[in-house]
Amino acid sequence: MYYKEEAGYTCPYMEFTVHCFEMTSHVKSNGYYELIKHNLITFRFEDIHDSELIGFDHQNAILSLEFEILPTNERGFTPILVEIDPANGLGGEFKAFSGKVTKVLPCDSKGQLTS
Questions:
Q1: What are the Cα distances from residue 74, in Å, to 54, 71, 77?
Q2: What pLDDT tens digit does each residue of the chain (115 aa) get?
Q3: CB neighbours of 115 closer than 8 A, spacing ≥ 6?
Q4: Cβ(111)–Cβ(40) under 8 Å?
Q5: Residue 100: half-sphere exposure toward Cβ, Cα within 13 Å
Q6: How far apart are alpha carbons 49 and 93 in whole angstroms?
Q7: What is the pTM assigned to this prediction?
Q8: 60 closest CA partner among 99, 21, 28, 86
Q9: Domain ranges of the chain
């Protein structure tokens, strides 16, 4: 988590990149499902609060990344709940008052950038 200063206000933010792909119903000769449409997607969330992240290690495989728009609070802000369901490593959740996708870059099955 980082902090961004704007006009005297310090804003905690989080940015992370996820290797995403589509799993097809086609089973390859090695017995694994064929994975296609590999991309590296970078997310940025600002005004982070109520964060609880656990299990960060050398291999962070996410089973699912879920987003939920929460009810508007008494100050008029509508937070986003981000839940990270781990397959291995990093898991948890946090709330943010803004979020966006900053980059989508094509990659190969190992997460290496392609043209």
A1: 30, 10, 7
A2: 555 555 666 789 999 999 999 999 999 999 999 999 999 999 999 999 999 999 999 989 999 999 999 999 898 989 999 999 999 999 999 999 999 999 999 999 999 999 7
A3: 106
A4: yes
A5: 4
A6: 10
A7: 0.82
A8: 86
A9: 2-106
